[in-house]
Amino acid sequence: MIIYPAIDLYEGKAVRLKRGDYEQMTIYSDDPVSVAKGFKTCGATALHIVDLEGARDGEPKNFDLIKKITAETGLFVQVGGGIRTRDTIEEYINAGVGRVILGTAAISKHGFLRDMVAEFSDAIAVSADIKDGFVAIKGWTEVSNQDALDFCGEVERLGVKTLICTDISKDGMQGGSNIELYRTLRSKLPIALIASGGVSTIDEIKVLAELGMDGAILGRALYENEIDLAEAGALKGDG
After folding, report:
1. Among candidate residues 118, 122, 41, 123, the one with its CA nearest the CA of residue 88
2. Looking at the chain, which terminus has fewer C-beta neighbours within 10 angstroms, N or C?
3. Residues annotated catalytic, as ranges
4. Residue 48 and residue 78: Cα distance in Å, rounded?
């Protein structure tokens, strides 16, 4: 299982939200590049970066910063937030990003998702951000009428190879992730699954690995030193 330290960007800063609420934002650093390098020093092999402004506004707002992080760390980077056109996907891939995450566009434009998977293959992932059983969109500011489990199944049928699943109610709360949700998804879907939202202890990482999850995204628990990244990396297994 791969550990993905999370860097959420807002106005050029590394921040974290609570339950996807932009009004509950904590700023952790004015220098996200240094944060990324620090994660690499602690053994990270990959990063999960979200352009929060892009997710909310529908177009990238921190592209140059993400490009710099990718270039200066040399890590595998997966990026989400405001990615809703083919040109944006291509720009990120050309900038060295390893995987581009579609969220709102995957919900609102199924034909677009199908076409992008056909063109860019494994470089396309989908983020299923779940609130009360439905998929949230537009930087978590709206909840669609799309049932979350049905959506995840449809994504797999469209050929997506990687699904990132977040229970918004758990995100940024350090109260534990939705283990039962991941257990259900793992039993139903034969694709790579990455857990996100509320992962807060080493024991929980062990459970996720035992479930057969392919990755886990760590956010606030790293920033507030609840989890030691080097220790988590040592427990991640072979993926």
Report:
1. 123
2. C
3. 8, 129
4. 5
Which segments in the chain show pLDDT lower than 70?
Answer: 19-20, 137-142, 169-176, 236-239
Decide: 194 and 167 in contact? Cβ < 8 Å. Answer: no
Question: Taking the model in full, what pTM does it have?
Answer: 0.89
- What pLDDT, on the 0 to 100 scale, is given for residue 142? 66
Contact 92, 120 (CB under 8 A): no
Would you state the structure tokens that stand for residue 184, as one six-digit string? Answer: 């259900």
Query: What is the pLDDT, as a whole number, of residue 143?
Result: 74
How far is Cα 37 from Cα 232, in angstroms, rounded to an integer?
17
Distances (CA, A) of 114 to 119, 152, 158, 212: 9, 14, 6, 26
Distance, CA of 200 to CA of 207 (rounded, Å)? 12
pLDDT of residue 128: 87
Q: How many residues does the chain have?
A: 239
* Token output for 28: 């952790």
Rounded-to-integer distance, Cα 234 and Cα 6, Å: 18
